[in-house]
Design brief:
By secondary structure, the protein is an alpha+beta fold. Helices cover about 25% and strands about 25% of the residues.
């Protein structure tokens, strides 16, 4: 397997790589092999070899919303690392390996508005599409025209409707064999100075909430759409906490006493009930069990099932 993978052009192969290095939690055991593909053809050829050998595999991105098991991956972790950003008028083509912050900065520099509410994103462009990333009332689906991906047989391109975007959801979450390669976005002309000012203001808020050095995945749970709340729960939610048709999961978690909870070296922030972080030396089992405890508490208090934003490997 290693010999065949190492022979593929534009594929960098490493053995026994701790995946904690590649997640914001800094948690996760080793992958037997980490393979970084810098072109679509290298990715496809790697997958062909992996499938012929019948090895287990998983595609990972920037690791922002990823929890990797303490045992790691007894197979191959595959990353697509191509990160080009091409701008032509109001259209932006971004490869999946580009960091979201790089994309935000590039569009602001070119006087293109639409992503300035998303500074501080530490994940990749592919992950942003996969999870329909967003912040402060906007999400990336508002700007996506097309997405190019590999479906296991060949390269395909679909339009915005084909992505089936919903709040923190896309078709790619439900078809994990579809690997995002690039996307084309449509942005609006705007004043770069005003865009930068807006982005900097938001970044200051984000950095206070999620300090850059904190080992965390941002918010653990999705916020809850008001329209999808059980009828029995809606009267219990004060109007003041409803934002843009959503109720922050932090509200329910705080009522359930989540703030300051801990499980070993994994803790809930004292100031934000929807923020779990690794205080150093935490394990995936500790995160998993704390998440399960929080979900159970909210269910016991409200009869409401919270859904994680984080993905599990």
């Amino acid at each position: 397997m290693l010999r065949r993978l190492s022979a593929i052009p534009n594929l960098h192969v490493s053995e026994n790589v701790p995946l904690a290095r590649y997640t914001r939690f800094e948690i996760g055991g080793p992958a037997r092999v980490l393979a970084d593909a810098s072109t679509g053809h290298a990715l496809v050829e790697a997958l062909r070899v992996i499938r012929e050998q019948d090895w287990p595999w998983a595609v990972i991105g920037g690791g922002t919303n990823l929890l990797v098991s303490d045992e790691g991956l007894l197979g191959i972790a595959l990353r697509y690392t191509a990160g080009a950003i091409e701008i032509d008028g109001g259209r932006v083509r971004v490869e999946a390996g580009a960091m979201l912050q790089e994309l935000v900065d590039a569009t602001i520099t070119h006087g293109l508005g639409g992503l300035e509410t998303m500074p501080g994103g530490r994940g990749g462009g592919g992950g942003a599409i996969y999870g329909n990333a967003g912040a402060y009332g906007h999400s990336i689906d508002e700007r996506v025209e097309t997405v190019r991906f590999f479906d296991g047989r060949g390269f395909r391109e679909i339009d915005n409707a084909g992505c089936e975007f919903r709040y923190r959801e896309s078709v790619f979450k439900h078809h994990k064999d579809r690997i995002i390669l690039s996307a084309t976005l449509k942005l609006d002309a705007a004043d770069p100075a005003k865009l930068r000012s807006a982005a900097d203001d938001i970044l200051k808020i984000r950095n206070r909430k999620y300090p850059p050095a904190m080992r965390c995945a941002g918010s653990i749970f999705k916020n809850v759409l008001l329209s999808q709340l059980p009828e029995s729960v809606r009267p219990q939610v004060p109007e003041r906490v409803i934002r843009e048709g959503k109720v922050p999961s932090a509200y329910f978690l705080e009522q359930a006493g989540a703030k300051g909870m801990m499980n070993g070296r994994v803790r809930v922030a004292d100031y934000h009930a929807n923020l779990i972080y690794n205080a150093g030396g935490g394990t995936a089992r500790q995160v998993h069990d704390l998440v399960a405890t929080l979900k159970r508490r909210v269910w016991d208090c409200f009869g409401l099932r919270l859904e994680e934003e984080i993905q599990y490997v």
